[in-house]
Amino acid sequence: MDEPDFGEVTPLRERTTEHGVNFNNTTHLSKGLTSIRKHTLFGQTPAKRIIPQISQLQENADSQKIPILLCKQWTLYSVTPLYKFSYSRLKDYSRLLSAFIATEKQKGLAVEVGNDLGIKVTLSTLLGLKGTDQDDEAILVQVRSVANITNSYQGMTWCGWFSCTYRLDLLENVTEDFTCLPVFLVNGAESLTAIVGTWFQKTFDCCFSQLTINPLNLAWMAAMWTACKMDSHMTAVELIFSVPCSPQSLDISYAIHPQDAKALWQSIQKTQGEVLQEEVDLFMNCLYSHFHRHFKIHLSATRLVKVSTPVASAHSDGKIKIQHSQYLIGVLSLLTELAIAHIQ
């Protein structure tokens, strides 16, 4: 294997803490949450995961909506099951949410929804993202300025979507009164996110919580997404590590040529189609050893905060960007698992 192409050690400005959106929690958690807690399998990271292979988006996948999900940075939230949610009432929900946003604007909240301050909310099904027949259909929420409503998606000022891909056996005991869409992804102003989240919580007795990603799961993502077959768009695999130091924080950027990362993984993986915890550990330790050999820095003493691969990128603060529809189902499957684990 040729010598990998490594990145650089880059000092950054001192970090300021980023505060996520704080939703107004409802008085009572939905009863569906109790069922999840009783039957959850994810008290800890599983010892084995399946590599997301090229997904066959369902035939009913909307070719106009799927591109909205790609190459855009999303903020992740976990959501408890929605009580008495009905797919047949999406038009009613759109109208009610529009009215709720308008009411909140009149209270003086800063919501950027267009120069004329007129907005239109649309809730619609996001077809093609189900992993199994048991999964609930994904929901797309779009907020547009009325002035640009004739320009299709060009007038969109805020977008969010709920999904559940491969809901797993642990959700079997959630009653039919609840709709399980544990992953909520948002792109838009935090002020509007807070209003939309508050409406959903009040209307469907659910709870939102920002979903962060710990270094262990980021390492899993690095290994699983490196293992994916890519026909094109082979960008570098980049790992960002945070170094705890004072008075200025330091980030280390570690870039590996995708073919080198792939070759390393193939020399470690025992069984095609699955990833083991011990393989993830070995993959990361090999990268650490190589980096130390060149720069005399122990990455094991730092904290992994971001992973970027040709498949997707993810940050520990709960930001994710999916690059290709080819692996959309696989990425959503992993996010569903993490969201359900976070709910418990």
TrEMBL record:
Main location: nucleus
Matches recorded under InterPro entries: CENP-L
KW DNA damage (keyword) present: no
Subcellular localization, as worded in the UniProt entry: Chromosome, Centromere; Nucleus
Keyword entries, A-Z: Centromere, Chromosome, Nucleus
A single cellular component GO annotation: inner kinetochore
Top-level taxon of origin: Eukaryota
Nucleus among keywords: yes
Pfam families in alphabetical order: CENP-L
Family as reported in the entry's similarity comment: Belongs to the CENP-L/IML3 family.
Listed PANTHER family: CENTROMERE PROTEIN L (PTHR31740:SF2)
Annotated protein name in UniProt: Centromere protein L
Organism of derivation: Sphenodon punctatus (Tuatara)
